[in-house]
Amino acid sequence: MTQRTQNKEKSIFLIIMAGTAGTFGIWALMAFVTGLSSVDYQVGEMLRHFLVATGNLGEYETLVDFYTHIKGVEYLLAGAFFVAFPIFFKYINQADKAPGIKT
């Protein structure tokens, strides 16, 4: 392929990706504004509705129900840490091996 053909393909790909991102962005903005309008444009109330709908905020009948919910959140945080820490560790060690840095 020639350089001109490659540049044209890159431009077409960029236009398609920008159009797709723009479409999703407009959709997300409209969903956000519609959600805000349903609660009289109160961001805190919309956040509360979101937390209740996703199960992160609610009334618990017993202490065991509450403890079970907290334990589930704890497991999610621990899992996220076990994924993020090795990635962070690799990043830190890679930065130490950069050329021009003497240890």
Which key phrases capture this entry?
103 residues, mainly alpha, 2 domains, 3 helices
What does this structure look like?
The protein is mainly α and 103 residues long. It has two domains: 1-57; 59-103. Helix content is 79%, strand content 0%. It is built from three helices and no strands. The longest helix has 36 residues, at 3-38. The protein is flat, with a radius of gyration of 24 Å.
In a nutshell, what does this entry contain?
With 103 residues, the chain is an all-alpha fold.
Residue ranges: pLDDT <50 for 5 or more in a row? none
SSE class: mainly alpha
Largest sheet: none
Q: In DSSP terms, counting alpha (H) and pi (I) runs of 4 or more, how many helices?
A: 3
Shape: flat
Calculate the mean pLDDT score and round it. Answer: 88
Question: How many discrete domains?
Answer: 2
Write the H/E string, N to C: HHH
> Distance N terminus to C terminus?
46 Å
- β-strand percent reads under 5%
